[in-house]
Design goal:
about 40% helix, 15 helices, alpha/beta, 6-stranded parallel beta sheet, Rossmann fold
Length: about 400
């Protein structure tokens, strides 16, 4: 917890900066409290850089560690909790984040706060729906954050229903899809080559991505997968040579050496952008993570590995869907998983995906960033939507 003196000084700094004028075209971005350059905020920011003159918007990114973001060009960068950080936050017109803000964001009357959340849809129950399983301090923070929010993004009609019920929020929900998923609608061959090179993956290799979520108590037993055997099964079913990428949740990243020991397996837990990993993945293995719904856009095979399904749903989180109602093959052990891979029917899978996306009312069409930045123009420059459309 912040010491009383530090809290008083910080609040005084915020008060002083809140007396300064808001800069009408300044947008400040956070991804997971400044821990990464990724998620939906990244793709909104990139869309602005690619489609608008450099002086149209003043784009500011917040990071814990500026030294690791030297490669990021065309935006201004500030370190979390620095004096400059508070100045930028207090004088930005638009604040964009994919996670709850803390009490140190004192939203001003003329600021506009966009909450992108984490994904287009989720399997695990969230917020008020999971209130009994969440810490009391988080609930307090979430309720206060919802009061600040001006716009919440939804990837599908089902998500809108969840937000209306569970988010402590009565404001506008922007039903135009998830900017982070726009990437998955592109052919992306140039992007894929660049990501392969960045990760030093041989260009002839196919990619199997294992991206599980975390459990209470950080139990590691549920991540016990024989990757060597899995790679042989993948080669037998789909052909080619395979490399396995393992992306652990940030809560587990420090324990990656205890989980990953096989040859031909790469730990990508520190890789900032999961969307880029979804782009290059030929097959995804996850469990209760919302990544399955983002990946469904690609029609590429996704499998669920849930050896602890009974314990998880009784002790950790409830689920919004019965696993049998999802379009993804589900396994509870290694033998079961490899059998599901061998018997995978891609034509049936694509039909199941299409039916599921229709059932949840997907808004995803690859144009989410475009639609949202038009709204941001309206906010920053006080234009109507027709005036924005004419200018584009």
């Amino acid at each position: 917890m912040m010491s009383l003196l530090k809290k008083l000084v910080t609040n005084l700094i915020i008060y002083i900066f809140c007396c300064l004028p808001i800069k009408h075209n300044k947008i400040i971005f956070f991804s997971y409290y400044g821990s990464q350059y990724g998620g939906t905020p990244k793709y909104i920011s990139q869309y602005i850089q690619k489609n608008y003159p450099s002086d149209r918007f003043d784009v500011v990114w917040v990071f814990y560690d500026l030294s690791s973001k030297q490669y990021l060009k065309g935006v201004r960068k500030v370190r979390t909790m620095s004096l400059k950080y508070f100045y930028e936050l207090c004088t930005a017109k638009v604040v964009i984040t994919n996670y709850r803000t803390t009490e140190l964001f004192k939203k001003r009357k003329n600021q506009y706060y966009i909450q992108t959340w984490h994904s287009s849809l989720r399997l695990k129950q969230i917020e008020k729906d999971a209130e009994k399983t969440l810490p009391a301090h988080y609930i307090r923070m979430a309720k206060k954050d919802s009061l600040k929010c001006d716009l919440l993004l939804a990837g599908c009609k089902y998500s809108t229903e969840i937000f209306n019920r569970a988010f402590w929020y009565n404001g506008e929900i922007f039903e135009h899809g998830t900017p982070g998923n726009d990437l998955l609608f592109e052919s992306g061959e140039d992007n894929k080559r660049e990501i392969y090179e960045r990760l030093n993956i041989p260009k002839h290799k196919k990619v199997f991505l294992h991206a599980p979520t975390f459990r209470k108590g950080n139990n590691l037993d549920v991540y016990d997968v024989n990757y060597e055997s899995l790679a042989r099964t993948l080669a037998s079913k789909f052909g080619g040579e395979w490399i396995i990428l393992v992306k652990l949740h940030p809560h587990l990243a420090s324990k990656s050496s205890e989980i990953i020991s096989d040859r031909n397996v790469m730990d990508v837990s520190s890789f900032d952008d999961i969307q880029e990993l979804l782009l290059i993945a030929n097959v995804l293995l996850t469990d209760y993570s919302s990544l399955m719904f983002d990946f469904s856009i690609t029609n590429k095979p996704c499998f669920l590995f849930v050896p602890d399904i009974k314990e998880y749903t009784s002790q950790d989180r409830g689920l919004y869907f019965e696993l049998k109602d999802l379009p993804f093959n589900t396994s509870i052990n290694q033998t079961n998983l490899e059998e599901e891979i061998r018997e995978f029917d891609h034509d049936k899978y694509k039909r199941d995906i299409e039916n599921f996306l229709n059932r949840v009312g997907s808004f995803e069409n690859g144009k989410a960033s475009e639609q949202l930045v038009k709204r941001i123009e309206e906010v920053c420059f006080k234009k109507t939507r027709s005036e924005v459309d004419e200018a584009v």
